[in-house]
Amino acid sequence: MVKGIFEELKKDPPKNHFTVGIEDDVTFSSITYDTAFKLDESLWNQALFFGLGADGTVGANKNSIKIIGENTPLFAQGYFVYDSKKSGSQTVSHLRFGPKPIRAPYLIDQADFIACHKFNFVEKSNILGAARPGATFLLNSPFGPDQVWEQFPRPLQQEMLDKKIRLYVIDATRVAQETGMGTMINTIMQTCFFALSGVLPREEAIAQIKKSIEKTYFKKGPAVIQKNFAAVDATLDRLSEVTLPTQTTNKREFPAVVSAMAPAFVQEVTALMMAGKGDQLPVSMIPVDGTYPSGTTKWEKRNIADFIPSWEPEICIQCGNCSFVCPHAVIRAKFYHEGYLEGAPDSFQSGKISARGFPETKYTLQIYAEDCTGCKLCVEACPAFDPQDRNRKAINMVEKPVNLDKERRNIEFFEGIPLNDRARVDFSSVRGAQYLEPLFEFSGACAGCGETPYVKLLSQLFGDRLLVANATGCSSIYGGNQPTTPWTTNKDGRGPAWANSLFEDNAEFGLGMRISSDKHMQIARDLLSKLKPMLPGDLVDAILNEPQGLESQLRKQRERVAELKVLLLKMDDTQAGHLLSVADSLVNRSVWLVGGDGWAYDIGSSGLDHVLASGRNVNILVLDTEVYSNTGGKCPKPHRRPLRPNLPPQASGWGKRTLRFRPFLMATYMSHRWPWALIRSKPCSHFGRRRPMTALRWYLLTATALLTG
């Protein structure tokens, strides 16, 4: 592209106000360039690594650059590509090594070595498109050298045959589990890279890797170092070369990026972004006003977990804990009449409802396997054990099936069962909340995130009348990411309204939502009062005076407003038209300020204090992780002494984020005579001696008390 700019400047006259790398078919400002132009790459050894966010791939490649740069005469260059999802997204590492200083564009399109650290990447797209003829391909595969060829789609098989690729496989995931490394396969795949690339002699490379491990994990203790050493030692024995056949043996093509059931915009625009080809979209395909459809994460189906939950109906006590703590809304529950089971797939599971007096009512806990991140929080939260086997719970982690067609049919059937009536659900208990439809689903948050269960709960409790002002931070990234959005709508096409504000002014931003919502309601009430002589008097009185505290009352108000809108459409009156434009505001809105501790306790604390002092009906959810995750791990100013970040590993059962209102915020609440509740942030307190979920019940009860908000 840079060469294209210089070529354009040679023209007489050159194009003024041009763009490059963009297909501008609207203002036609883009210039052409030679896409086939290449620098001399003959002296460089180039490598691409496809990894999964948080699997350690990027960190291992940074260590590889250090090892090569410090222990060989070679020069090194590295560039790392990953999207704004917190973890679990695809990362691509671009590494170059050569005998002379490297001055070249970072992105590699002709690689001598390609490593794929997540097997399902090869099932989705042609990751060997950038491979040079004769390149080496290293694959983390659950299939051995005798079975792996049949798992490749036909185009990938053809690519390997055409380019005479050398294929090596290793089950790095199993090696990591056996050596106590959990999900971290980075050390294993790094060892394979040095063994195959020839950049360093094998023995020297292993010695340098172990030296790097000691340096990197020194503070974590000798146990962690020894686990990494064990992984290195076990790696080369598990590495196998695959002898390729002479022709393709599979007729399966690459699947479509999204389902054919997806809306046209998702198939034509969003899908290209999801495939990493957003740069190819012409300007005319981008929405003019910058608006994108919501609820698009359900089409993504990332399939990043190797192990997923499995439900045991005969053990389950239907407490709702697993559904409640699930960070990505992949565990959902419904109760329904047994008649709905007619035509159910053979693999569809159900059990009797654990409540007296409902002999014909069934209960199902459905797991969305392709959206699960495998964090295990559901298993940790489950209190129900098999009396005969204490290691078996009502929900357990199992290896994800290779063929997910059964799971897809089960989900399709489950979604066909009507949602439970919100007016019949107990909002004040975890057991009841599991039946509420989540309007925040399948976000890009980290596996085991402790923030998103609360955000999801907001969407369940307040549904389509929720207005969220979201400060910048983790919650704004997984809440308003591109190309897919987790905030979604119900069957009526209504859902929460969400907007991201600047880090500093989110409280004032949310206050503006409250003021504008109140103003819209006041305008609607005034217009309705003026039009009362032209409308049924009892309908007008009911809209203006009936309470809107309970879900049943809110439903009746919606029905009344719908009836009003039908009448207004028939009226030839200017004021009727004005009322029609604001009629939906006659249903109470619930405004929430959502942000992290950096916003609430530090940079936005004065604004928060101002909003609380205003006395306006706004609610606040502080996602307090005790550390500024996006700015290098700083601690908030209210603390007089440094705090150790409260980010325990997934194995501890709490996930990566914990939340609580700390004394600073409590004092602010009480000074303004606001109701407040201490959220002891653990998503479930069934552990240890604290059997009841006391803290969460207090939260739910407080949220219920604020329903009129």
If you had to describe this structure to a student in words, what would you say it looks like?
The structure is a single chain. The model is unreliable at 638-664 and 673-709 (pLDDT under 50). α3 links the parallel β4 and β5 (131-140). The protein is of the alpha/beta class. α7 (202-216) packs antiparallel against α8 (222-238) and α16 packs antiparallel against α19. The chain contains 23 helices and 18 strands. Strands 2-3-1-4-5-6-7 form a 7-stranded mixed β-sheet, sandwiched between helices. It has a 4-stranded parallel β-sheet with strand order 16-15-17-18, sandwiched between helices. 40% of the residues are buried.
Which structural traits does this protein have?
alpha/beta; 709 residues; four-stranded parallel beta sheet; single chain
Low-confidence segments, ≥5 residues, pLDDT <50? Answer: 638-664, 673-709
Strand content: 5-15%
Count of DSSP E strands?
Answer: 18
Cα gyration radius (Å): 28 Å
Q: State the separation between the terminal residues, measured CA to CA.
A: 54 Å
- Form type: globular
- If you average the pLDDT, what whole number results? 86
State the helical fraction. 25-40%
Number of helices: 23
User: Tell me about the biggest sheet?
Assistant: 7 strands, mixed
Helix-and-strand structural type: alpha/beta
